[in-house]
């Protein structure tokens, strides 16, 4: 088996906007954060435009789309408003995520199997506009089958439960890693491009980065939090290094 050592890193800048919005104004600047991320080794920028605009705002998406050279991945709810915004700005990718106004952050994967009727026209419309559509789902074969049926070329596997299991002991952690590995191999075997993300840290990223079918990781909260102590450039470079080390070890073992 030939191992592709390339693993893309998408840096989510939502919580740069969270800090900015705590006081208003324009500091810290999301565009500056995106530029630092690019220089530090990011392969793309991810931003979630929530319906309540709690962090990223419409102006952020407009500026990012007009200015950054890296691909922009717009995370969005499956609504008419968000579909219209995506079609207006034409980001490189749109990742459809579940969204609840009551949640603090995204709490789980999209139920693509149950929501096929709602998702089908959105996936079709975005795809027809040349936007790479991704569905943020649990590492579950039923959800992967639904993504294939919907015609989405990409799935992003939710790693939140896996990351929480890190604190529950090695057995629980390994069970969650194995569940993600199974889903990644299954989805790749069906022709999907496999991404992963949510809650990944320096402690948890390597076992996921070492899964050969995974092509991209999207990481945000940890990087912005770590940046308080070491700076955003160093925070991202530290994650990039761990991802690359895991991928190199995978290739060496193949």
TrEMBL record:
GO cellular component: cytosol
Site location (Transition state stabilizer): 156
Enzyme class: transferase
Associated pathway: Cofactor biosynthesis; pyridoxine 5'-phosphate biosynthesis; pyridoxine 5'-phosphate from D-erythrose 4-phosphate: step 5/5
Reactions catalysed, as given in the entry: 3-amino-2-oxopropyl phosphate + 1-deoxy-D-xylulose 5-phosphate = pyridoxine 5'-phosphate + phosphate + 2 H2O + H(+)
Annotated binding of 1-deoxy-D-xylulose 5-phosphate, by residue: 14-15, 50, 55, 105
Main function: Catalyzes the complicated ring closure reaction between the two acyclic compounds 1-deoxy-D-xylulose-5-phosphate (DXP) and 3-amino-2-oxopropyl phosphate (1-amino-acetone-3-phosphate or AAP) to form pyridoxine 5'-phosphate (PNP) and inorganic phosphate.
Protein name: Pyridoxine 5'-phosphate synthase
Species: Prosthecomicrobium pneumaticum
Lineage of the species this protein comes from: Bacteria, Pseudomonadati, Pseudomonadota, Alphaproteobacteria, Hyphomicrobiales
């Amino acid at each position: 088996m030939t191992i592709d050592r390339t693993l893309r890193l998408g840096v989510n800048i939502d919580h740069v906007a969270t800090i900015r919005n705590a006081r208003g104004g324009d500091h810290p600047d999301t565009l500056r954060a995106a530029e630092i991320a690019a220089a530090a080794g990011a392969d793309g920028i991810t931003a979630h435009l929530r319906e309540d605009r709690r962090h990223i705002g419409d102006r952020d998406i407009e500026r990012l789309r007009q200015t950054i050279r890296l691909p922009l991945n717009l995370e969005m709810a499956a609504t008419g408003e968000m579909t219209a915004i995506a079609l207006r700005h034409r980001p490189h990718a749109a990742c459809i995520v579940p969204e609840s106004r009551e949640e603090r952050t995204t709490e789980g994967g999209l139920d693509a199997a149950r929501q096929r009727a709602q998702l089908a026209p959105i996936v079709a419309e975005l795809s027809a506009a040349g936007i790479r559509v991704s569905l943020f789902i649990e590492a579950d074969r039923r959800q992967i089958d639904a993504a294939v049926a919907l015609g989405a070329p990409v799935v992003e596997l939710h790693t939140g439960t896996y990351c929480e299991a890190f604190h529950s002991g090695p057995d629980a952690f390994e069970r969650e890693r194995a569940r993600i590995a199974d889903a990644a191999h299954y989805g790749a075997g069906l022709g999907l491009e496999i991404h992963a993300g949510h809650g990944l840290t320096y402690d948890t990223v390597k076992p996921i980065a070492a899964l050969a079918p995974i092509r991209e990781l999207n990481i945000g909260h940890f990087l912005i939090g770590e940046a308080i102590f070491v700076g955003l450039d160093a925070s991202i470079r530290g994650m990039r290094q761990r991802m690359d080390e895991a991928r190199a070890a995978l290739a060496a073992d193949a």
